[in-house]
Please model this.
Amino acid sequence: MEIEKILSGIIKKNENKILLIVMDGVGGLPHPETGLTELESAKKPNLDKLAKSGMCGLSIPVLPGITPGSGPAHISLFGYDPIQHQIGRGVLEVCGIGMEMNRDDIAIRGNFATIDENHIVTDRRAGRIPTDENKKIVQKIQENIKEIKNIQIIVQTVKEHRLAILLRGKGLSPFVSENDPQKEGLKIKKIVPLNDDAIFTAEVLNEFVDRVEKILKGMDTKAKTILLRGFSKIPDIDSFEKRYLLKPVCIASYPMYKGLAKIVGMDVIQGLDTIDDEISALHKLYDEYDFFYLHYKKTDSAGEDGDFNKKISAIEEFDEKISKIMHLKFDVICVTGDHSTPCVLKGHSWHPVPLVIVSKNIMPDDVETFTERACSRGLLGTIPAKDIMYILLASAMKFEKFGA
Amino acid sequence: MEIEKILSGIIKKNENKILLIVMDGVGGLPHPETGLTELESAKKPNLDKLAKSGMCGLSIPVLPGITPGSGPAHISLFGYDPIQHQIGRGVLEVCGIGMEMNRDDIAIRGNFATIDENHIVTDRRAGRIPTDENKKIVQKIQENIKEIKNIQIIVQTVKEHRLAILLRGKGLSPFVSENDPQKEGLKIKKIVPLNDDAIFTAEVLNEFVDRVEKILKGMDTKAKTILLRGFSKIPDIDSFEKRYLLKPVCIASYPMYKGLAKIVGMDVIQGLDTIDDEISALHKLYDEYDFFYLHYKKTDSAGEDGDFNKKISAIEEFDEKISKIMHLKFDVICVTGDHSTPCVLKGHSWHPVPLVIVSKNIMPDDVETFTERACSRGLLGTIPAKDIMYILLASAMKFEKFGA
Model:
């Protein structure tokens, strides 16, 4: 990113506080019958008030046409280039279930799979065993395998046939091949190092797979081996403190978002289950931080379900909560989403996301309501999500002049 | 381009069909008397219907302020960076007259010129000899020179003093100097290799010029030599099939556009003379392809002529034809131009080009008519032309999610 070439020369610390509210998957598409989107259908007087007083626009999460996962979508919102800073699948899996991960750990996605006596993979998902069965197997593996060659092994259930694995210790590298043959009817592969630094890691992993298979042999389950992929470390990325001179905190209830916030060095508050918990935490932590990332999940979940009314309710519920934030003095408030999750598509999408920035230092525009189409006529225009952070920092007067 | 770093990881094949309609040079500027552009003056109910149901915007062909030729303008529309993938002048000349070109051929633009007995160039255009005279000379050259040092030589008239030359064979390189002294009164230059790989090519070309001069000596014409420039090969560019997993077809009547489509690996339909031929072809080929590039030339020609009424008629003629397309089921339809050709400028221009995308997966906006000013208020905003292709692919659901 161009701005990275000058950022350290212009960023300055001050007392001003920034609140970034991410309504996950808030953007939508019109309902076929009404022609109105979820946001256009919801009653949301508080969000509309923000739109009226603020500067609106749309944001493109990654690139035009590209549908992002939560990882790249948040990396963008945090002001980093999501293509330059790709987060490995293993790391995202580990983030998603809230495992604590250190900077040198190797994170891995695992699948339980079925093999026959000749090591031919007959079911890459072991019949999608129930999550409870997965938990029992994982417990047995963890009891029997605590370390291999001085490398600590940590395993945890994700769901059904999926699990996450962390390797912790010295001399590890993520540059090893998968053992997944990708197709059923083929033999499970050996894990091989992709460069010389990874020879040791491949040895550890092959021994791990062997020992897992021995444990599974004695159990009444379709899970007979473990397929490993997505080997990755936490990306080497400047923290918010180093990059922006901010003291940031993450207020979120879902593990994935806490994990992503941790990657950029935010303090992460644990034990928040509901949006009310989150808003209480915001009040409690107000004095301690100058950057607050507040995450609201329900809009995305309803979109993924394709449940239009549920998404409207999620928007309306959150709108009501916003009134409880407004008396706190933030110098800059931004409300947006990490991506769109239109109910009609039942999943994430590439569509630009509505965005409002409220601050005494911005230029208010004519937008009167917080919707996709209204925000498209806002003064911000349609901008890459990775630019938003810099407009927030600027509105909080955290930049010196560039050049004389 | 950033997207090239992730494209192969997210592109997927499906059954959905995309139709890209290029109304060449469709963008215009206001008539001095009416204050209305060509599009604003035309009656075009079908284009307006598309604008009403679709998502509109403007596209910048190459970069703000840059007027493109047809080459870079189309390369952009096809989703490639037009600055990174520049197409040589020789290749464009050859495309423009519909010569068949292979991947290792060297294409060259030639001018007949007049020289005196001391090889001083006295007229760089040989008095702009008539095209018929050019054809006679070219025929004689082709009869007498079929190959040099095992390199096949193919010559073809362009018009007036201009011709195109192809070298076909082993060991050729485009890295040779021109022999054009650029000014009259100077001696014609020897062609010299610009690196060691081009020594052989320079020898072939110098012998070619010598032999052409000998042939021309005996003829009653002002053409006494041949100036050569624009040496180029087909750019090494991923095909649509490789890059987008598409099966694309070009439906165009002019050689230039067929040549450009061939460069990106489209199947090119020959023998189409009119827009009616093109629309019949579209119907006939509907089942066989999943990407259709349909080119309409008359809007550009009228703009080049500076004939405002003719351009209005061209728009209205095409508008009527659109009704014959609409009952075909395309999942995504895009209508735009490759660039603007305002009648008041009598040529290509840098002005952003109106754009509409119709698909059930887009967000319709409030734009009600397909004009420059109306589309500028559309939800797509003003975007680089090279991004359009990715929005079309996204709307056709041809992308997997990027990241998790």
Remarks:
- Chain B touches chain A at residues 2-3, 5-6, 10, 361, 363-366, 377, 379-381, 383, 387, 390-395, 399-404 (CB under 8 Å).
- The two ends of chain B are 22 Å apart (CA to CA).
